[in-house]
Design a protein that fits this description.
Helix content: under 10%
Number of helices: 4
Largest sheet: 5 strands, antiparallel
């Protein structure tokens, strides 16, 4: 790319400096360093002001290296107890690992990823185990906050939560397929993974098209059951993964919270919530999206020009309600007609395949018509 620059009394053609490409790292595991970090959340992990930042070098707690001996609850010792309060970047290792795995609490922001430190009550033990109420495929590494540094207090503790209220965790499937061998090798040594299960995980995330990326096993966006809750940000597209026994399906919902007009897209609301899918009670081949709880208050986005006139306008999201849009019937100027966001499972698309894997049709509607 070149541009004209006036130098002295002549115009010269010079090569323009290319802007550095921004890379979006996984907010779940923090795969890229960031030079701006959010201030710590309060004890319960409520939302903090997004513009409250602190430098990496402002705290001696910012970066820490810790070695633990096990991820098996029954084998924990006092030396496995960690105080992670205020830690931004944890380099976790094991006696036989020979290297460390970087672990972070929560990342936010796109394309400039920012990280929250572990909250003040993050004192306890890392461990691996199944998730209550979910199938064995949902087993994960979590952090148990305990009232004392003794392993005997493990059962009295509670798992560390993200600001959304979902557990902080690393899926065993992610550890089995991630490039870093640190967690995978330790899980193999302790029997949480086996060589056979590694092959099964590799087969689940494989894709037939070499140009297609494999499904991402991000813990809070990987669905195992039809009514499982997942976080949504009203300013961003929704990308999920459905994990079944033999395969992982990518489920991109796209701009589910956007209005479109003449090729342009606008997200009219800001905020974040937990949502889940729901069948239409009278037409089971139709799937809706319901807001379960709102954990970042809903606010209106900046106004758009008067020329903005979408075919549908989003209804303000609220807890307990379906995601809905207002329509203006042809020949009228009324926007009082509301209809919920809907996806028809009779359509033949990759999204339909993922949704049908997550929500198998009732026996009477196997063919959907």
């Amino acid at each position: 790319m070149q541009r004209l620059v006036l130098r002295g009394d002549r115009l010269r053609l010079v090569k323009a400096a290319c802007p550095r490409r921004q890379s979006y790292a996984s907010s779940q595991y923090g795969l890229r360093e960031s030079n701006r970090i959010l201030q710590p959340p309060n004890y319960k992990g409520e939302k903090i002001a997004e513009n409250t930042l602190v430098s990496n070098s402002s705290s001696s707690q910012a970066d820490r290296h810790s070695t633990i001996s096990t991820l098996t609850p029954g084998l924990l010792t006092e030396s496995d107890y960690l105080d992670l309060s205020g830690v931004y970047h944890l380099r976790l290792s094991f006696p036989l690992s020979g290297r460390s795995k970087q672990v972070r609490y929560v990342g936010r922001g796109f394309p400039h990823l920012q990280f929250l430190p572990f909250p003040p009550h993050a004192r306890g033990f890392f461990y691996a185990g199944p998730q209550p109420g979910l199938p064995p495929l949902a087993a994960s590494i979590r952090f148990r906050c305990t009232p004392s540094p003794f392993p005997s207090s493990f059962e009295a503790g509670e798992d560390l939560l993200r600001p959304s209220g979902l557990p902080w965790q690393i899926l065993l499937g992610h550890a089995a397929t991630a490039p870093s061998p640190v967690l995978r090798d330790q899980l193999l040594r302790e029997g949480h993974l086996t060589p056979q299960s590694l092959d099964e995980w590799a087969a689940r995330v494989s894709v037939d098209d070499p140009n297609s990326p494999p499904p991402l096993l991000v813990s809070n966006r990987t669905l195992f059951t039809p009514h499982q809750r997942f976080p949504v940000n009203f300013q961003r597209p929704v990308d999920l993964t459905v994990l079944r026994a033999h395969r992982a399906y990518a489920l991109p919902l796209g701009p589910a919270f956007a209005e479109s007009y003449r090729g342009m897209t606008r997200h009219p609301f800001a905020g974040a919530a937990l949502a889940h899918f729901e069948r239409n009670p009278t037409a089971p081949y139709l799937v809706h999206l319901r807001i379960a709880t709102v954990f970042t208050p809903v606010d209106e986005a900046p106004p758009t020009p008067r020329t903005w006139s979408p075919a549908r306008r989003m209804v303000p999201p609220r807890a307990g309600a379906l995601v809905s849009f207002r329509h203006c019937p042809p020949g009228t100027e009324s926007w009082n007609h509301e209809a919920p966001w809907v996806y028809d499972l009779r359509r033949i698309t990759p999204r339909t395949e993922a949704l049908r894997a997550l929500m198998p049709p009732p026996r009477a509607h196997d063919r959907f018509g």
